[in-house]
Amino acid sequence: MDGVRSGHRHAGRGLLGPGKGSEDRVSRAKFLGALGTLLLAAVVLQASLGHAVPLRESFERFPRRLGAWVGSNEAPDPEALARARPDEYLSRRYGDAAGRPVVLYVAYFARESSRAQVQAVCWGSCQVRDVKPHRVRLGPSALEVNRAWVVQDGEPAVVLYWYQLGHTTLRDPYRAKLDQALRALLGRRSDGALVRVSAPVRGEPEEALARAEGFLRAALPELLRYLPE
User: Fold this and answer.
1) Can you give the pTM of this predicted structure?
2) C-alpha–C-alpha distance, residues 217 and 214, integer Å
3) How far apart are CA 164 and CA 53, in angstroms?
4) Dihedral in degrees, nearest 10, Cα atoms 22, 27, 31, 37
5) Which contiguous run of DSSP H or E holds residue 199?
6) What is the DSSP string of 114-154?
7) Which helix (H) or strand (E) segment is 63 a member of?
8) What three-state secondary structure class fits 219?
9) Rounded to whole angstroms, how far apart are CA atoms 166 and 190?
């Protein structure tokens, strides 16, 4: 009889499943497994973005005089800053000897430079009329950028903009994303910048374009001293 009762007790445990202690151990194992997966994902994400790379020198020291150009700080659009979240930025209005203006905007990202593509052409009340590749002569070489005709706050302007990854200049946002991914994989860094030069049209559009190009030639060598290589 004892053998029969003992058999019934074992059968009962099999039908009812494991006890509460076993269930707790299973739940704890699942929790630890999920936590481990999250930690692993965080490590992979950290590795994919790489480490933060600071500017070689603060934008606060960027010259206010570049040859004949004299500049003063200009507040950027707060909504654009909130959306792109650059780690550092430079926003300055320069004027040439005749008082004709250009606006320089540089948004630097110590990590995840793909954010540079948020409102890259212009911001606020802006209508983009045309965007095309454009070559700017720099002595014996040329710089490949984007040239856009826009209407910013009711005023027509020409915009030259590109993405700067180290000392590599890229105009294509998809190529910039690919290069960022390769740099993150091989060098564990994903820093980069958006560089934009805007020139309001005051008369002939060709004059505004020539003005933007002239300022770019004066500013780019100095700017590269501030951006990481």
Assistant:
1) 0.76
2) 5
3) 14
4) 80
5) strand 192-200
6) GGGGTT-S--SSEEEEEEEEEEEEETTEEEEEEEEEEEETT
7) none
8) helix
9) 10
With contact defined as beta carbons under 8 Å apart, do 102 and 94 qualify?
A: yes
> What token pair was written down for 131?
């965007």
CATH class of 59-224: alpha beta
Domain ranges across the chain: 2-49, 59-224
φ, ψ of residue 101 to 5 degrees: the values are: -95, 155
User: pLDDT tens track of the chain, all 229 residues?
Assistant: 444 333 444 444 444 445 555 666 656 666 555 555 544 443 344 445 568 899 999 999 999 999 999 999 999 999 889 988 999 999 999 999 999 999 999 999 998 777 887 778 888 889 999 999 999 999 889 999 999 999 988 999 999 999 998 888 999 888 888 887 887 777 788 889 999 999 999 999 999 999 999 999 999 999 999 999 8
